[in-house]
Amino acid sequence: MKYILIFVLLCLVSCGGPSKTGKMARQKAHARMDLVNADLASQQARQQFEVGQLDAAIATIDVAIQRFSKKAEYHQLRGRILLEQHKLDDALRAFETASTLDPESAEPHYLLGVLHQRWGDDHTALQSYTSASQNDPSHAQFFIARAETLTALNRDVEAIELLLSNHQFQHQASIPALLGQIYLRTGKPTLAVQYFADSRSLGNDDPILFADLAMAEFRAGLYAECLMTLRELTIATPNGLTTLQQRVRGKCLAATGQLIQGRDICLSVTRDTPQDADAWVDLGFISWKMGDYRRLSICGNEISKLAPAAVEGPLFIGKAAQQAGNNVLAANSLAQAASLSKNKELTGWIVTSAMQTNGKSAPVLQEAPNMQAKTAEKVIVEPILGLVEGSEPLVTVPQN
Fold it and tell me: Which domains does the chain have, with CATH numbers?
């Protein structure tokens, strides 16, 4: 009996310690509890982040990571908080950790792209956006970020090919808007108008779209349409049109035969921004078109003071002096304008006008500035408009 009791006690002692299976089960249970607690901490950190409690959020997410460090979402959230705190190096490490823990996830790559763009590194940002877009092809934001970065790198052809080849986001208003911006920037305003209109038809009522559309219509020579768009833009923007948009409106009015209204707007702009030489150029051309040579002379003198290298200053002074019969001033000013001109056809026209002032016969080129054809206007007038790079002229040079 004594031996039996000893044997039972030994069995009880030997069974008292945990088995290998028991230890593993206990470890899994602890891991599950750590994950549950970490998820709760992560949710709390997200809430704190969303209400702007950044210091509290970073402390809470660090608790989550301490409990369960292998979940990419925690590091991603930590990176977002750090990014908001402008702690970019720490944010970079957090996003890289998140992308390493979950290579198939798209958002860490996207956030890395955002971070690299803040550093001005568009090349690396493009790689990150491309990875994000490939990991999640259904996410329009990742796709658009990739296309926008291509345009930032002046890889417009690739951006256009990318945008046109994707039919998954054909109902996204931002796609045609981006195409419109590319075509506008690359000197294809007619195509830009088309895509901006498509974006608008998809529900894009952003005032930025109206501003871009107006500029595209302006450059495409659609002056009546531009006026309508500017009218809508005026309604959509409480602060009214910018100075440039007011200038465009004035030129459009002049181009559609409303010279007095256009003149009044451009005159108002010169009063509001007297140091803007381009505003005086606008007013000068409309004054020339109206035959107001006194004001043309004033514009020429203002331009000569503000922008001595601009051809319009001596050109306006010379033309006004020519009409006033001041041949000496006219000849000297036109000669100066010819020396400042960087356009062969324009130089020829100025030289011709100077020859007329001196009583010499005029070459055939004298007729070029008065032609109504778009080609003649573009060749002669556009180089001296100074309004918007690549724009069509809004007022032709009037007859002598």
Answer: 261-399 (1.25.40.10)
